[in-house]
Amino acid sequence: MWILEDFWGWLISILIAILIVFGVARIAHAGQYVGETPAYAREVGFETRLFYVAPGSDGENQIEYICKAYAGNGSNDDTSAAVWQVQRFYYNSSDVLTRISFAGDDDGYNQSCDLRVSLNYD
Known about the structure:
Elements: H1 2-22, H2 40-43, E1 46-52, E2 63-70, E3 85-91, E4 97-102
């Protein structure tokens, strides 16, 4: 009996050691999931304006435009200044997001937020 009890104790110890060495569960750090680069660091300090889809349209009550500008550039409170990055979100009739485009096909900070509706997103 003593040999059998010792065998099971030894076997359980080996299995626990294997689990610890090879790590059954992957560790996720704050701000990211496994295999993902943290995105919050890129978003710190931006001035952001959100504009929503009008009622009765595809994507009702969803975000339609996002305007972002660097904080502290002196013009980020002025939505008519050409210091904004403008994104447009497109939805289908089922209110499912189908496409995201940048104004002027450019992700630079060189657009006017006030002109977001008339900008080219192709």
